[in-house]
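User: Continuing from earlier, I have the next pair ready.

Assistant: Great, send them over.

User: Here they are, in order.

Assistant: Folding the first of the pair now:
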Amino acid sequence: LDRIEDLEVLDARRAAPRPAPLPSTVGVAGDAPRVVLDLAASARWVADAHPVEDAATVEGDRLRVTLAVTAAPWLERLLLQLGPDAQVVEVDEALGGPDLAARAASRVLARYQG
């Protein structure tokens, strides 16, 4: 938006059709490790922002998603960002195991303490 120099509001609706949605596996290797997360309602944006292989509502308003992950550091950052709004249900050992988020948080804390 910072590059828009001019704007004109028109009465006519957009005539071009919406682009077709991309397949959920775009850019993800079929053999990539998977993680299953339970997301609180406030973290449902993850399913809109990232390609999910599966999504289902569980335990009332929580959303369980399956993501293919090509890099463990990306998953660590996501889990740190989500905090208590995400719970790891299953994670491929190639990504670091079920305590991945706790270990990442410990490393961040150590940086601030040292």
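And the other member of the pair:
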Amino acid sequence: MSAIYPLAKESLLNAQINLVSGTFKVALLTAAYTYSALHQYRSSITAATIATSGALASKTVTNGVFDAADITLVAVPGGFTVAALAVYLDTGSAATDNLICYINGLSLPTNGGNIPIAWDNGANKIFAL
């Protein structure tokens, strides 16, 4: 089940989050994280986070679809399995970093190397509202 966090939808609709000008990053998650529609901040996922990315680049919003350039997480710690990822708005603190979307269905073992994230090239890209 992949989803846009409901509280992120609310913030987007209230113009509290700008998908183009904000700094967005990706967190790689183990299966220890269980999605909850009530989660709002990155502090809800930190226990299951394997690694976080740098900022997403070339962000666009077209016809209600959010996209960005593909990204590579470098030197991801080994010994884990990436089960999902979360996109979040980086504010500098896990207590206030807004969770935006959750994408699961992954099964990527880590070995200390890089993990490339290639966003969907179809109609939904990272996510569609």
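Worth noting for the second one:
Residues 83 and 106 are 5 Å apart (CA to CA). The chain has a mean pLDDT of 96.
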